[in-house]
Amino acid sequence: MSLNLFPTLRTIVRKEFQLAYRDRIMSTLAVIVYTLFVVSGLLTVFQYQQDQQSREFSNAKFRDQFKAQHTNPHDAAHFGTVLFKPLNLISAFDPGLNDYFGTTYRVEAHVQHEVDYSNAESNDALMRFGSFTLAMIMQLLIPLLLLFISSSSLTFEKESGTFKMLMAQGLKPVQLVWGKVFANYLFVILLVLPIFTVVLLFLFFVPSGTALIGRFLIIVAGYLLFYLLLTLTGVLVSVLSRRSATAIMVILSLWLLSCVLLPKIATGMADKRYPLMSRAAFKDHIRAGFLKGINGDPPYQERAENYLNALLKKYKAAIASQLPVNADGLILQYNEDYQNKVFDHYYAELEYTFNQQQSFLNNAGLLNPFISLKRLSMAMSGTDFFHHQNFFMQAKKYRNGLIRELNLELANHPQKGQQAYIASPEFFRQLKDFQYDFPSLSKVAGMQKTGIISICCWVLLLSLSLHFVSKSSLF
């Protein structure tokens, strides 16, 4: 663009805003959008506070119950505890998959649980339509509004006859087109920027919120880049259309296809192309693998006998009661280690399939930038599949370590006669609580580079297409 183009663009942008103000378009749309934002924000804050208080109360309750025990360590392992997936303020902005993948992890001896108890299980409306959140408005309603406005920007000039008048005054088509782009894009920026600013201020003042500012800034950049893409799309359709009705039909079809149908189709194709074994089949594999052995290992009874014989040989004892340790505790931990081995063996197959599905969806984002935006928003909010998997792996590691400590505490106290060892509350109080380590921003951003590149490439492609078309088709 030449330097003398910018004064012309400023004039066009000013004219567009004057028309919008005179026709009350901007004020009407702003009232509607901000009403939705306020309702959604209040619901989001209420739900976030309710969930956070529920987690804090439940965490404290389970922790106090567990640490107040005066019982056998293995009985405590069966009693177990519950770990809760942590929340953050950005996860309230975009709940992502949290409502569908579960929020709690049960710690229990002999059983490797999965993250369970999702909100969608008991909420049919949530399962069908999703939750009414700020992210939903940003991803679906704002794009639809922007596409409608931008798609009629040039057709309005053609239908009203002002296009020929503007051309007669020496205005070039490319100047008019880019003026419309900048005017519509500036309009949507002014519309959503206050919302982003409010969330950003919350991050500054809530505890540990400053650690999330980098993530949220990437979210803001992603949405603003996506809105630029939509503006270019709408104006391009307006350039190629003769009537506003035609442009609106095309835009509505594009919105339904890219924002509603294609994401569901892509998810269905990923599931069909890389099918997962059922939960029942997975549990059956673990049960059979533990009892029969995997990779040529002997079955359960033979493994236990071999391990006991190895203990007797190591300590030069004839029977288990002569051992300087509690054989029950060591055998329990040996079986626990083998069950963890079996679980990891079969879960590796599931994890590989999960990764294939996620890779497929990443590639689908190259064709549909809306998928890339949605995945980027969930990733930076900590509510995508990677963060769910990360919580599960950390919870499982904590569970394995806790059960090991309990079994080894039992093993270090040989049984005296018929009296079982009872651990004191001091032992349970010194056990460490679960601490979730949030993945680093660089790691999460690196995993979303395909989506970021996809949106940037689409913006560049549409910019070049619009610039080329505006020099030819409008004459």
UniProtKB/TrEMBL annotation:
Task: Identify the GO cellular component terms for this protein.
Answer: plasma membrane
Top-level lineage group = Bacteria
Provenance organism:
Pedobacter steynii
Q: Where are the transmembrane segments?
A: 25-46, 129-149, 182-204, 216-239, 245-263, 450-469
Q: One Pfam family, please name it.
A: DUF3526
Spell out the molecular function terms from Gene Ontology: ABC-type transporter activity
Q: What is this protein called?
A: ABC-2 type transport system permease protein
Signal peptide location: none
Keywords assigned by UniProt?
Answer: Membrane, Transmembrane, Transmembrane helix
